[in-house]
Amino acid sequence: MTENSSASGGTGLPASIEAAWGLRERPAKGPKPGLTLDRIVGAAVEVAASEGISAVSMGRVAKELGASTMSLYRYVSAKEELYVLMQEAAMGIPEPLPALEDGAGWREALAQWAWAQRRMFHRNLWSLRIPISGPPASPHSIAWWEQGLQALEGSGLDEGAKISVILLVSGFVRNEALLMSDLAAAVEAKGVSAREVMAQWERTLRRLVDPVRHPALSRLLTIEGMSEPDEADYEFVFGLERVLDGVEVLIRKDAPS
């Protein structure tokens, strides 16, 4: 039995995640002198940042460290566990929200929380490809959730509704960041500007759209400048405001009459 598969301290978490919480000591050195959990996670992050999450494997990380694959298993029991630690490294400690310190309302605080998440994802686009394997249980992920819940203090929502709102907002942020990064990658792969990509798309639509079968799209094609790219962050601002509008409706609905 490896150290990572030994009985946990009652948390049900792998030993490496318990170590992140400070609930157990991290191994000081493995079979290769100087090998540490932090170095393993750092090497994995470097591989993901340069080549994508699909390039990360226990063997590849071991090669980057000049260690044997089996030596990594003293620290991390599986690649999925390594993913959690990589996500933890990417998230970091959430940045302070001025709205919380200034006593601003829930809407401004939650908007700042969403923007901070988006900045975090854009610094680590590879992390968007990590499969979600369960509820947050690592220190930084819990800290982000705590901050989001604090943003909703004073909203009047019950605790269950607050969790649902946090899931809604964080899901929107994640999806928008993933969509925009995919579109940016597609534009880069074509080797032309975003403006030209949109112009090509409009020309394609004009050849394919039938006014009888696609009346709504046909009307869209009559708009002047339809293929002009939106201003930076337009879709995020638009979508976030609509999500927050919906939360505001919920709060008003649940408010005592």
Written account of the structure:
With 257 residues, the chain is mostly helical. It has twelve helices and no strands. It is flat.
**Which range best describes the helical content: under 10%, 10-25%, 25-40%, 40-55%, 55-70% or over 70%?**
55-70%
The rounded distance between the terminal residues' Cα atoms is 60 Å
Biggest pleated sheet:
none
Q: Which range does the strand content fall in?
A: under 5%
Q: Radius of gyration, rounded?
A: 23 Å
**Helix/strand/pairing class, anyone?**
mainly alpha
Subunit organisation of the chains = single chain
SSE succession: HHHHHHHHHHHH
Overall form: flat
- Tally of helical runs: 12
Task: Give average pLDDT, whole number.
Answer: 88
Number of strands: 0
| Low-confidence segments | 1-8
Ordered list of secondary-structure elements with their pairings:
Elements: H1 15-20, H2 37-51, H3 58-65, H4 69-72, H5 79-91, H6 98-102, H7 106-123, H8 139-151, H9 159-190, H10 194-208, H11 215-220, H12 234-254
Helix pairs in contact: 2-3, 2-5, 7-9, 7-12, 9-12
Features:
0% strand; mainly alpha
Q: Can I get a quick summary?
A:
The protein is mainly alpha-helical and 257 residues long. 61% of the residues lie in helices and 0% in strands.
